[in-house]
Amino acid sequence: MELANRIKTLAPSATLAITALANELKGKGIDVIGLGVGEPDFNTPEHIIEAAYQALKEGKTKYTPSGGLLELKQAIIEKFAKDQGLSYEPSNLIVTDGAKHALYLLFQTLINDGDEVIIPAPYWVTYPEQVKLAGGVPVFVETDETTMFKLTPEKLQQVITNKTKALIINSPSNPTGMTYSRDELSALGEICLHHDILIVSDEIYEKLIYGDEQHVSIAQLSEELKSQTVIINGVSKSHAMTGWRIGYAAGDEALIKQMTSLASQSTSNPATPSQYAAIAAYRGSQKSVEEMKLQFEKRLNLFYEKLMEIPGFSCVKPHGAFYLFPNVKEAAKLTGYDTVDKFAEALLSEAHVAVVPGTGFGSPDYIRLSYATSEDILVEAAARIKNFVETKM
Ligand code: PLP
């Protein structure tokens, strides 16, 4: 059967692939530690589960408007006002089947063949694939430790052409955990305004920032920047709700309207009980969000320290999200592998630790390790990797 051209070049998600491989080995009875996952290991807070259960019992099991329940949109509007001082109308919002689908609808609605989207690397694996699926061209800008993996105004200027349609900013970032400051965002925003480039601000890890630092959305810096930005967010990471599939986009009314039409012709609406759960997530107590964050921060400190004891590993300490993204080129070399991909493969097959090679994130000298797992497991994983490297040196 001849398949569509657009699907032939689509790369499957590297992070989901490594998790599948680790599970396959586990199925064979091998004690594999999986650090590939991109989801909190905590269960969804009880009051959120209860709200979904109540909704089901009350018969809230039917279709909703394609863009999501008005009540949920209002809860999201309250959240934006409280957290960022941003004011939106329901017509500026679409609720989607996870943040990933908000991005999908956005690119399908925005991009014409040949339009360029600037993606700072390392990037979340999904961005370039979704841009390509929409007929767009991902334009990568490499970043490294010297700028804490952040895009600088100079680098941004260098890649802008008359085909540039959008820039993706992901703060806190998957995979590096870096966060942009107000001043850094302001400088990038000014350039985007000047060239009329839409800013796609993926803020899904907003609630996972450690220390005293506060999350800043580029949209809160000025009215002009708010008009020029589409914020992508959701409850998956903040409220340990990855499986409920609720995300959203906030932005220009005309754009959101067309994204909603596309949703109406593809998914109809996000699952109704999940929408009620998301209302409870935003309107209920945020204590569990804070508690989960503290746990993540403790794990980060522990795991970072352990990883830094491994020969050939170097890593800038992240400020947010739940990943470490060390440069392990030296460790690969020390252990006799000519690429980090091969080193990562050996970590899985020999040390039985599943990590995601940086190639999928556009940075082949690195690996991504998720610390969304218990402290005991993290200590064991670090010990296995250290032992593997030291034995092979
Ligand atoms: N954006 C980033 C940067 C992510 O890491 C993820 C999930 O891994 C998403 C968006 C998608 O989130 P959701 O599960 O709500 O689709």
Please specify the SSE layout and strand pairing.
Layout: H1 5-8, H2 14-27, E1 33-34, H3 46-57, H4 70-84, E2 93-96, H5 99-110, E3 116-121, H6 126-133, E4 137-142, H7 153-159, E5 164-170, H8 182-194, E6 198-202, H9 223-227, E7 229-234, E8 247-250, H10 253-264, H11 272-283, H12 287-307, E9 323-324, H13 329-334, H14 340-349, E10 353-354, E11 356-357, E12 367-370, H15 375-392
Parallel strand pairs: 1-10, 3-4, 3-5, 5-6, 6-7
Antiparallel strand pairs: 2-8, 7-8, 9-12, 11-12
Helix pairs in contact: 3-11, 4-11, 5-6, 5-10, 12-15
The chain binds pyridoxal-5'-phosphate (PLP).
For this entry, give a set of tags:
globular, binds pyridoxal-5'-phosphate, 393 residues, alpha/beta, Aspartate Aminotransferase, domain 2, Aspartate Aminotransferase, domain 1
What would CATH call the homologous superfamily of the largest domain? Type I PLP-dependent aspartate aminotransferase-like (Major domain)
Q: How many structural domains does the protein architecture include?
A: 2
Secondary structure: helix percent: 40-55%
Distance between the termini: 49 Å
The amount of beta strand, in percent, is 5-15%
CATH class membership of the largest domain: Alpha Beta
What is the strand tally?
A: 12
User: What is the approximate shape?
Assistant: globular
Name of the CATH architecture of the largest domain:
3-Layer(aba) Sandwich
Largest sheet: 7 strands, mixed
| Helix-strand makeup class | alpha/beta
- Spatial order of the strands in the main sheet? 2-8-7-6-5-3-4
User: Given the structure, what is the number of helices?
Assistant: 15
* Hetero ligands: pyridoxal-5'-phosphate
Oligomeric category = single chain
